[in-house]
Amino acid sequence: MQGRVLKPVLAVYTGLFILFLYAPFIVLGILSFQIGPEGGPQFPIIAWSTYWYRHIFGLTPPSRIAPLPIGESLIRSLTLAFMTTIVATVLGVLSAQAFRARFRGAGAAFYLIVLGMMVPGVLVGLGMALVANTFGVDRHWWSTAFVLHVVYTFPFAFLVMLAIFNRFDASVEEAAWSLGVPPARTFRTVTFPLIFPGVLSAMLFAFTLSYDEFSRTLFASGRELTLPLAIYGTFSVEIHPNIFAFGVLTTLFSLALLAVYAILMSASVRRARRVAIQEET
Amino acid sequence: MRADLELIGVDKVYDNGTPAVIDFDLAVEKGEFIAFLGPSGCGKTTTLRMIAGFEAISGGDIFIRGQRINDLPPERRPTSTIFQNYALFPHMTVRENVAFGLEVKRMPRAARMAKVDAMLHTLGIADVADQRTERLSGGQRQRIALARGLVVEPDILLLDEPLGALDANLRRTIQAELKLLQRNLGITFVFVTHAQSEALTMSDRIVVMNQGRIEQIATPYELYTRPRTGFVAQFIGRNTILDGTLSSLADGRALVRTAFGPLAGTPHGTPATGGAAKLVIPSESFDLFPAASTDAARLRETYGPNVLEGVVAQRDVVGHMVQLGLRIEPSHALHLDGHVEQFHIDALQPESRVWIAWQANEATVIA
Q: How far is CA B361 from CA A158, A209, B135, B306, in A?
């Protein structure tokens, strides 16, 4: 009896939830096809065109609207996200591995690590800027901001790996040791292939978090801007649909990243087998 | 000659101070099949894991073929472990699983592959060699684990309840196979189990453990017929245990004063005159006679003091087994179970009077 009422209510609720989740993006998507250069961010749009997409790539005749300053900042953001992904994931895997043995002070260490994702980004960014100034260190996206990105994303990678190791059956490692395989090689040929899906998830987390990180980067990155900062900078003048067009492109990029993740995920078992076979030479 | 495996005064104390294994002494000959038997939490698996090197040793020494291995990491010990859940590598085929341990040994690839194939054949899993392990049956997974553990030619094979996950029929088949394999290979097996039937059918000697201590080390037959402690008497077989005081000890015969009067048995261990003693009677040793048609005096000639008069209070026949509840005047009860043949159940109707008797040499008196 209850289900007859509850189920439609839940269905409507879920529908609304998804609508609110995606409505902004849909509006953004539609606005990105506004006619240019005279059309603005208004609804409904005047006419459909791909003007703003061409504008991003500098394929339109010069107009009073400056092109988006994304070229170098995009490279910077991607490089920074890539560096952050590698370092945070390696740290996350290693520290989660360490936490499998309940060492003394494990509880305190856990909270100190997780604190990195809890503390407000603006405060950490500001703090980093002050520390850098005090010690006379130049702020750059690849130094001070990079450190903050790692501090921020490492706990996510760590927690993902902790959950993976929680479900990991340690007896396969013991079986390998008892067959005479040393721990380092056991980690490489048994443990790592089995936790690889988790490693991929940790990498995805680290990459996306770092790629659009704003508040920490704002204070810590110095004069060369990352992509989120560069885009924010254009808001202070006037908003044109070229930002929406760029937003659509970025989202497509993220979706592509997810697709790559899914493909790697499904191939991870096969990959793991290849690793095992490679060892056998 | 040094024993194949020797444990001397081995202790295990966990970090929180709880002792898991206390003063474990054992010497195992080469080619012996040893079972560690006990209830869960008795320390049997911990002892096995200390031999394998997965657990640190808190005190004492472990030797394998005369070499002290206390501080050797697991990969440098001449042991292989078979786990209860088999712990197969899910990302490898059967063949890769079995070959894995040989890869670190610097052995030419051809020789290695030949060895793996031979082992796959020995265990009858050659036909699934190129399959992944997770779709295979419990029995096949069991054999893969054995092949993987044996192909590296360990001095000692450690088995941690390896049959626990199999169904009863398969378990019996694999028990027989395992025993045969062990005899053919001549490798020392150390087998942990909580199932006494498994230990009794397969092992040369059994180490019975309880609460971290060894209760008794003996052959299955001796364990069954001559328990040394109250725990073993209770844990192994179906024994009736009567408490009392030891009143005399002479000529390999002990007399125990019990609630049923003085009863005789064969002393084992170190029961002391005047001290508390237990009389342990295996259920197979009981002979029952209808009181109406039997002369008690004649019975006493055969059975000595071990003749009691009782009344059948309850009788349950379960297939070929019978469970008897006997009332013994004035207010004691005795529960026996045994084979239908043994108890002549036709004569044992409820409320009928019977004589209960047993031979003194079949009963054991322990401290």
A: 67, 80, 54, 11
